[in-house]
Amino acid sequence: MNYPVNEVFETIQGEGSFTGVPAIFVRLQGCPVGCAWCDTQQTWEVLAQNKVNQADVIQVDGTIGRWAEHDASSLIQAFQAKGYTAKHIVLTGGEPCMYNVTDLTSEFIAAGYAVQIETSGTFEVLCHDKVFVTVSPKVNMKGGYEVLEQALTRANEIKHPIATQKHIDELDDLLANIDTQDKVVCLQPISQKTRATELAMKTCIARNWRLSIQTHKYLDID
Ligand SMILES: C[S@@+](CC[C@H](N)C(=O)[O-])C[C@H]1O[C@@H](n2cnc3c(N)ncnc32)[C@H](O)[C@@H]1O
Ligand SMILES: Nc1nc2[nH]cc(C(=O)O)c2c(=O)[nH]1
Ligand code: SF4
Ligand SMILES: [Mg+2]
């Protein structure tokens, strides 16, 4: 199956439980959710006029909304051609779960990679059972509560973006019906804001949750 890919690059995972792990990022094009503070607004629209060749999205800056069709084998070939050594693939976007990524994730796993998905919980998560799923819930956004509940139940990690106490209250409401015993719960300050970071730290200590900061932004790497 083909998927629209905005960019592929090798870096260090900057967020969540795998912070510090060398990773190959595959960023899919397309997201209908529309978070005001989104880091990757260039991925929202899949426009026919922005379609490019497969090579044009490999290890190039994807900060414009161009995309190319790739499947698992063309991606794995590209990783090998570029000499990537990371064994951890992060499938992000855009919103990767707009697409059924069972094919893609199964082939990556069959090729020996560990796979993580970054998703907003606004679409049902359809992927291989061994994928580590990070849900960064987008409350009151597209998808509705039933879909979000499926995504949160599947999640290995719940990484909530926060700026104010209201966002923490929303997370409390979401977690009321979810068994989080085997899940990592973390708070991620939005856009490195000082007040958000202080609130996240204070709340993580009080609740024994984890802090996720976007370390790649502090390091100024991709
Ligand atoms: C760009 S999103 C793509 C994957 C998916 N659409 C999602 O929202 O999870 C990847 C991660 O970045 C987070 N994120 C996006 N913009 C951010 C910002 N300005 N500050 C902090 N986190 C942000 C999202 O919440 C998510 O955890
Ligand atoms: N280094 C690095 N870590 C990340 N973790 C999640 C990212 C994302 O955009 O989904 C991201 C990203 O863009 N870069
Ligand atoms: S769901 Fe993810 S990609 Fe989509 S707008 Fe929100 S943060 Fe950006
Ligand atoms: Mg980035």
From TrEMBL:
Residues annotated as domain Radical SAM core: 18-222
The protein's Enzyme Commission number: 4.3.99.3
Binding site for S-adenosyl-L-methionine: 37-39, 94, 136-138
Cofactor: [4Fe-4S] cluster; S-adenosyl-L-methionine; Mg(2+)
Annotated positions binding substrate: 12-14, 27, 92
Cofactor note: Binds 1 [4Fe-4S] cluster. The cluster is coordinated with 3 cysteines and an exchangeable S-adenosyl-L-methionine.
Keyword terms: 4Fe-4S, Iron, Iron-sulfur, Lyase, Magnesium, Metal-binding, Queuosine biosynthesis, S-adenosyl-L-methionine
Stretch forming the signal peptide: none
SUPFAM superfamilies in UniProt: Radical SAM enzymes
Pathway in which this enzyme or protein is active: Purine metabolism; 7-cyano-7-deazaguanine biosynthesis
Binding site for [4Fe-4S] cluster: 31, 35, 38
First-level EC class: lyase
Reaction it catalyzes: 6-carboxy-5,6,7,8-tetrahydropterin + H(+) = 7-carboxy-7-carbaguanine + NH4(+)
Family: Belongs to the radical SAM superfamily. 7-carboxy-7-deazaguanine synthase family.
Binding partners and assembly: Homodimer.
Protein name per UniProt: 7-carboxy-7-deazaguanine synthase
